[in-house]
Amino acid sequence: MKLLKKRNVLLATTMLFASGAAFAESPVCGEAQDDSWMAPDVVQEQIESLGYTIESMGVSDGNCYEMTGLNDEGKGVMAYIDPRTGGVVQENLVE
Q1: Band (7; pLDDT cuts 50, 70, 90)
Q2: How many beta carbons lie within 10 A of that of residue 66, not counting itself?
Q3: Structure pTM?
Q4: Domain range list for the chain
Q5: Which range among 11-20, 24-33, 58-67, 68-77 shows the weakest confidence by mean pLDDT?
């Protein structure tokens, strides 16, 4: 059941991005990856400690970590994380 829910969140996120108008522009977190960036596994641990469930994580065009998954309320989200602090910069709900 949990796997099906995760698959639905990922599918919904993919469909929304394909539509082009689903979200506002992604935020800009600074310069391209350098030594000041936190390691992805450290950021993942920090985000999970806030109650998020991570489905996938990558780097956005604005040089933020970009995470899809569930927030602490179990709602589907696309979140942008500052790679230097691990703080959530922007969160978009996936309807």
Answers
A1: low
A2: 20
A3: 0.72
A4: 2-93
A5: 11-20
